[in-house]
């Protein structure tokens, strides 16, 4: 049995926060017809995906 490496929890939490925050901002931007909010939300999701793809222990 291997013990979990604790920094992985922080990275996972960061990915989840960026992803869910991005989805929330995209939904808000879609409701308000604000393209700048959509852009910020998309960049948040892109950031979460990049962290998830690059940081593979």
**SSE string, helices as H and strands as E:** HH
Helix percentage range: over 70%
Distance between the termini: 17 Å
Number of helices: 2
Low-confidence stretches: none
Report on the architecture of this protein.
This protein has 57 residues and is mainly alpha-helical. The chain has two helices and no strands. Helix 1 (6-32) runs antiparallel to helix 2. The longest helix has 27 residues, at 6-32. It is elongated, with a radius of gyration of 14 Å. The relative contact order is 0.18. The model has no long low-confidence stretch (mean pLDDT 89).
List keywords for this structure.
57 residues; single chain; elongated; mainly alpha; 0% strand
List the helices and strands and how they pair.
Blueprint: H1 6-32, H2 35-54
Concise overview:
The protein is mostly helical. It has 2 helices and no strands.
């Amino acid at each position: 049995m291997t013990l979990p490496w604790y920094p992985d929890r922080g990275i996972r939490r960061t990915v989840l926060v960026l992803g869910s925050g991005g989805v929330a901002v995209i939904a808000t931007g879609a409701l308000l017809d604000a393209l700048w909010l959509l852009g910020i939300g998309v960049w948040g999701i892109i950031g979460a995906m990049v962290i998830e793809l690059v940081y593979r222990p």
